[in-house]
Write a structure and sequence with these properties.
The complex is a heterodimer of chains A (251) and B (265). Chain A is mainly alpha-helical and 251 residues long. Helix content of chain A is 82%, strand content 0%. Chain A contains ten helices and no strands. Chain A is globular, with a radius of gyration of 22 Å. Chain B is of the alpha/beta class and 265 residues long. Chain B has two domains: 153 residues, 3-Layer(aba) Sandwich (Rossmann fold); 69 residues. Chain B contains seven helices and ten strands. Chain B has a six-stranded mixed sheet, with helices on both faces. In chain B, strands 2-1-4-5 form a four-stranded antiparallel sheet, covered by helices on one side. In chain B, strand 4 and strand 5 form a beta hairpin. Chain B is globular, with a radius of gyration of 19 Å. The termini of chain B are far apart. Classes of the chains: A mainly alpha (251), B alpha/beta (265). At the A-B interface, helix 7 and helix 8 of A face helix 2 of B.
């Protein structure tokens, strides 16, 4: 595309401009620098934080919790979603209930998770899992429904076995929707784990951010925000990149 | 002694025999008789077209001949043997437009039936090339369906149906979604491919003109319950030409079909 480069340049310009406005607001004192440390200060604090062993340990803790919750929620949710979508009766019964469950803000259940699991690894993973699984189930049912009956008939007419149909028709049909689901699920998952850490925890980057906030350590707090934002954006973009490679045929 | 002499000779490859076939769809409220007592003989290498108003069960009959659906009563044999499930060695099926897999290239779509049977990659590719060449799509193998026109997509579908070289090709309204000009061209193309391969073709359509233009024989069906109401021999010479469309012979055949359909509609 001819305008592709111009669009990208405009995007970069907006990000740079935002950081510049942030810097100016803080430097000129339009916004109190104690409330909003400048962008350059924040970024240098971020660099410093990343050097610290304790912060790296917090990041490792959070990453382990996020990955564990994700690795549990995605296959379990996908399996449940698949079973529901494949059975018309189940689908009819379960779908509205799922939407009910999905519409409830998950954060109100957080105290219960603490009571059941105590404060620790399983509480975070449990809450991350709980925050993620409904969107995985719902997305999987959507993905199954995106498989065209015509394609299944074609496979059958050429003698495909159930396993061949699963891998050669279901999977490629569902892949674009599933990747999108994966991406959105990660957003829910990350939110769940970090929220659980901020609410009650002894370690993890969410806990650190909450502590920095309570202690009015604005530089550290903002650096933490930038760090998590960068990690979340990086994951999202990675999956989006895979998505575009796998779904070029979708027009 | 000739050991083979004692064996009942099989029906020749490509013969289709439909005997007293009925199909009843059970719904929660009632049973719908989709087809009733349908009998039909298709000799090898013939081009037979099924026409009839919507709901006459012509597509259902085709799906039963393909082994994709089982009849409630009666028997269907292809090359002398019943067809309890789809058998791509005996029958290739060409569906309506949306049947290609959009994530595969044209040649991968054509290779699909071969891939299911574990044919090696090189062998697959070679046979797909031959099939694509036969349908006039040489050089388009690397394109994805969304990069092909409606007519080209249906050529790929035909190539996929022919790639295992089955004696029978079943076609379920394959050109229904195409515009009029493309449809005419594809009709001529199909006749060329049919003449080159000698397949038995059973073709379902709504279009009376298409039916008479393509067929050796036209089977006219009536709706609910689906029955055969007429069986016409089309004795127009081949190759068929555009000029025949305006001839008297063509017109009287089409009128005869139309009278049946108007009566039952």
């Amino acid at each position: 595309m001819q305008s592709g480069l111009a669009v990208k340049a405009a995007r970069v310009a907006i990000v740079v401009a935002l950081f510049a406005i942030w810097e100016i607001l803080s430097r000129t004192g339009i916004v109190n620098p104690r409330l909003l440390p400048s962008a350059s200060d924040t970024l240098s604090t971020l660099g410093e934080l990343l050097q610290r062993a304790s912060v790296r340990k917090d990041l490792t803790v959070t990453a382990t919790e996020v990955v564990t919750a994700f690795a549990l929620a995605v296959p379990v949710g996908a399996l449940i979603g698949f079973l529901i979508a494949e059975n018309r009766y189940f689908a009819e019964v379960a779908k509205p209930l799922l939407f009910f469950a999905f519409s409830i803000p998950k954060s109100i259940f957080l105290p219960m998770f603490i009571l059941v699991f105590g404060v620790g690894f399983s509480q975070k993973v449990g809450f991350g899992f709980f925050s993620t699984i409904f969107i995985v189930i719902i997305s999987t049912t959507t993905a199954v429904e995106s498989v065209k009956v015509e394609h299944l008939t074609v496979a059958r007419s050429y003698g495909a076995t159930p396993v061949q149909t699963a891998f050669r028709v279901y999977l490629p049909s569902m892949l674009p929707v599933l990747l999108e689901a994966l991406r959105i699920s990660m957003i829910f998952n990350l939110t769940g784990v970090i929220l659980a850490e901020m609410y009650a925890s002894r370690d993890g980057i969410g806990h650190q951010i909450a502590t920095w906030g309570e202690n009015f350590q604005m530089k550290q707090l903002l650096a933490g925000v930038v760090m998590i934002a960068a990690i979340a954006i990086a994951f999202n973009e990675l999956v989006r990149w895979v998505e575009t490679r796998c779904s070029h045929w979708r027009t | 002694m000739q050991p083979l002499a004692n064996i009942t000779p099989l029906k020749p490859a490509g013969a289709i025999e439909v005997r007293n076939v009925g199909q009843i769809f059970k719904t929660t409220t009632q049973d719908v008789v989709a087809l009733e007592d349908v009998s039909l003989d298709v000799k090898p290498g013939r081009f037979v077209v099924l026409v009839g108003p919507s709901g006459c069960g012509k597509s259902t009959l085709l799906m039963m001949i393909a082994g994709l659906r089982q009849q409630t009563s009666g028997t269907i044999t292809i090359s002398g043997a019943p067809i309890p499930e789809p058998d791509p060695n005996r029958v290739g099926v060409v569906f309506q437009e949306a049947s290609l897999f959009p994530w595969l290239t044209a040649e991968e779509n054509v290779e699909f039936p071969l891939a299911l049977r574990g044919v090696t990659k090189n062998d697959r590719r070679a046979r797909a090339q031959d099939a694509l060449q036969l349908v006039g799509l040489d050089g388009f193998g690397k394109r994805h369906p969304h990069e092909l026109s409606g007519g080209m997509k249906q050529r790929v579908s035909i190539a996929r149906g022919l790639v295992q070289d089955p004696p029978v090709l079943l076609m379920d309204e394959p050109f229904a979604a195409l515009d009029e000009q493309t449809r005419m061209t594809m009709g001529d193309e199909l006749l060329r491919i049919w003449a080159a391969t000698g397949k038995t073709v059973v073709f379902v359509t709504h279009s009376l003109t298409e039916a008479v233009y393509l067929a050796d024989e036209v089977i006219v069906m009536s709706p609910r319950p689906g029955r055969i109401v007429d069986h016409l021999q089309v004795s127009l010479p081949r190759p068929r030409t555009y000029e025949m469309l305006s001839g008297d012979a063509f017109g009287s055949l089409r009128d005869r079909i139309w009278r049946h359909i108007r009566k039952s509609a």
